[in-house]
Amino acid sequence: MKLVQTRVGQAKSDFFPTISASGGYSASNLWNNDGISGGNDYYYAAGISLKQLIFNFGKTNTQIKMQKFNKISAEFDLEYTNLKTAYDVKSAYYGVLAAKALVDVAKSNLEINKRQYAQIKAYFEEGLKSRIDFVNAEVNLSNSQIELIAAQTAYENTLVKLNNSMYIAYAPSYSIKNTESFNLKEDWTDVKFLNIGNYKKLEEEVNKPAEKDVEPLNYTTSDAPTLSSKVEKNDILENYVFKPLGLSFEEALDGAREQRPDFKSYLAAKEAMAEALKYAKKEYLPNITAQAGYTLRESDAPTSNSFNYGATLDLSSINIMKTKYKVDEAKTQLDIAEENLNLIEKNIFFEVQDAYINMVQLEKQIPLYQKRVQQALENFELADGRYGVGLSDFIELQDSRSQYLNAQQEYVQTIYNYNIAKSKLEAAMGVI
Hints:
Number of strands: 6
Low-confidence stretches: 186-237
Largest sheet: 4 strands, antiparallel
Structural class: alpha+beta
Mean pLDDT: 78
Shape: elongated
Number of helices: 9
Strand order of the largest sheet: 1-2-5-6
Strand content: 15-25%
Radius of gyration: 41 Å
Distance between the termini: 20 Å
């Protein structure tokens, strides 16, 4: 930015006078034809002159305008860089939120598997379930521990990406807040244990408010109630209210045309090329300048001084062919600038269109994925109850648990995708 500002100053400098000064000493020995010395001749001289441009048929003004348009273009380039940086930070920020939510899902899944392992262990020890169910419960518990570690690692990596997007090295530990469009809660699931003796009682307890947790190992005899894990409806589905952006495609496109800094940069570059063409055509024209000077001369002869002034019509040596090709080059540069402007306008249209379509599609998908989580939760609750009373096998129970886990993960991913699509649309519109 400072570089282009100096070029504007250089262009304006033609309006300022040019000052020159000189000084010197000269000496010589004079000889006649007979070889006899005729004496010495020496003198001191000093002079100063001032030269001022009077008129050059608008060449300087054209040069100033061209550099000003270049400066405007550079300013918009900087703004566009800021826009891209803001998008990178937003993307990384949403990535951290998504990764944190997935860590919470993994923690919840681990807790579910811990409780199920304790439950099935109690069943197995009482001879109510087979060893294969007990072994599978152990495997699921181990897998959920591994998945939690992987989720935590992914979360740490997203923090690194966020720091990188902000150009912050050696960042201290910190936490970030949810946004309006990514306000998932941390308490994804609340795992309870229900006391059940038969399926009818299970239905009654499922439908009544949750009571104080009951530890599974308190029941060790076959006469005691069996145990089943129950995942309560999580808070995020009750509190998370999705609000679509509510922006039409035409409004988004109009906003992009008004706000995109790269479009404005190309527009300014085109104006600069137009001024460059004007300047090239004016190189055929002369400069009119005024000058004044003062000279002091001292020697054996009486000291002399003089003051001179005048005006000059300066038509520097012109290579007509070279100037012609300079004009042709400037015309070509202007054509290129116009084509670039036309191309960026089309690219903006397609960028806005692509981002808008993706955002609208995800706006439609979020409520469906939200409902899918609710359905998967209900299915898991029913499968859990059926397994507890011997109406289904362990495979059905774990299928329903996996479906619930996948539904939560896909729900988080969809909200993340929506926020990225929304950020892309904002970037395509030139909004930071």
